[in-house]
Amino acid sequence: MQTACQAVQHQRGRRQYNKLRNLLKDARHDCILFANEFQQCCYLPRERGESMEKWQTRSIYNAAVWYYHHCQDRMPIVMVTEDEEAIQQYGSETEGVFVISFK
């Protein structure tokens, strides 16, 4: 997801970002980058006073919910985050979309 990729670039640094980009480029991994910020149903404008991190989390969750419904609710979607507040806020909001941490 485009927003998640940008979050890695800004929060984790160039090294982690390059690892992610290489993973996406490698055809053996069968990965794609979904440009959620250019998909009308997924884009959410940043609210006044909202931090970049909160907007990115909200955008990623919204795109995950859209993708779940796009797949006709047949495939669960897992959003991984280190943000405990996001887990509390979104963890049980949509059936079939799971928000978890690996910590």
Structure description:
The chain has 103 residues and is mostly helical. It has one domain (2-74). Helix content is 48%, strand content 8%. The protein is built from 4 helices and 2 strands, in the order H-H-H-E-H-E. It has helices at 2-12, 14-25, 52-70, 84-90; strands spanning 77-80, 97-100. It has a two-stranded parallel ribbon with strand order 1-2. Helix 1 (2-12) packs antiparallel against helix 2 (14-25). The longest helix has 19 residues, at 52-70. The chain is globular, with a radius of gyration of 14 Å. The two termini are 22 Å apart. The mean pLDDT is 92. Its main location: cytoplasm. GO terms for molecular function: 3'-5'-RNA exonuclease activity; enzyme binding; RNA binding. Keywords: Cytoplasm, Exonuclease, Exosome, Hydrolase, Nuclease, RNA-binding.
